[in-house]
Design a protein that fits this description.
single chain; alpha+beta; four-stranded antiparallel β-sheet; 4 helices; 36% strand
Length: 273
């Protein structure tokens, strides 16, 4: 299938400001891009592309004062298959883990593995079989534990606060699930990208970027989604990191206000392009 995906975000800046953007489709999906309108800035500003520590394709720019619009648009080919399921994927002993996944066991900005959540994780899940069933049990618990509410979104809510407050948006579900998995010695990393209403009833709320997470089992990374908690079709990865702090769409180094924000992710006919 073909998926039309992109975004447009407008900000009002009070002075010339440097901005970092993680607004590109992840390099692992480059081969599936069938049409691309690269990330642009209006008014036109010089863009410097680079790759961050996690392999995400990023951009740095300095924008003028006033209204600034960031935009990109793409048509991406997708298999049309739901998230891969591997219920027999085993959990590795710590001594077997590759060196480059070990930092996905550690505490990060929003995922306090070094808090009371470690003991909570073992009390809730320590008696369960290791591996895929354990991760699914974590997703089931988090899915039930949190009430989704856009109006309760908060940029600085941590996994421990999510656990206590029991409300949040998709990033909050993933932060809690990632923290539980890391506490149980399962490497877990945060993902962000496009996820349209493909194969599921269309949601009445405006489209937004989506969060999910990946765990390392059986020598591979697998996608899980504690908010939706069902295999989904058409995930288009933009960035991975330890948590949402590593994959923010924009990081600004000056005062600004979001003026408008729009995301689109829809299945389209090949004839449309």
């Amino acid at each position: 299938m073909l998926i039309h995906a992109g975004f447009e975000a407008a900000f009002d800046f009070v002075a010339p400001t440097t901005v970092l953007l993680v607004g590109n489709i992840h390099p692992t999906r480059t081969a599936s891009i069938r049409r691309l309108e690269p990330l642009t800035v209006t008014p036109q500003s010089a863009l410097n592309g680079y790759f961050d520590l996690y392999g995400n394709q990023c951009v740095r720019t300095t924008v003028p004062a006033g209204r600034v619009v960031f935009r990109t648009n793409a048509v991406v080919e997708d298999s049309g298959l739901p998230d891969h399921q591997a219920p027999q994927a085993r959990q590795h002993a710590l001594q077997e883990l590759p060196d480059d996944v070990l930092h996905y066991l550690l505490a990060s900005r929003y995922c306090e593995v070094d808090s009371e959540l470690r003991d909570t994780a073992w009390k809730l899940f320590g008696h369960l079989p290791a591996g895929w069933p354990l991760v699914q049990a974590v997703c089931d618990f988090v899915h039930r534990h949190i009430r989704f509410d856009y109006l309760k979104a908060r940029a600085n809510r941590t996994a421990l606060e999510v656990y206590r407050e029991r409300v949040g948006v998709c990033r909050d579900y993933m932060h809690l699930a990632v923290t539980f998995c890391r506490s149980l010695n399962i490497p877990a990393r945060y993902c962000t990208g496009y996820l349209g209403d493909i194969g599921v009833p269309r949601q009445p709320s405006p489209m937004d970027f989506s969060a999910w997470f990946e765990v390392y089992l059986g020598t591979a990374w697998y996608s899980f989604d504690a908010r939706n908690n069902i295999p989904r079709i058409g995930r288009i990865l933009m960035a991975r990191g330890r948590d949402a702090a590593d994959v923010a769409l924009t990081t600004t180094f000056g005062a600004n206000q979001l003026a408008s924000f729009r995301v689109w992710t829809d299945e389209v006919s090949p004839d449309a392009f």
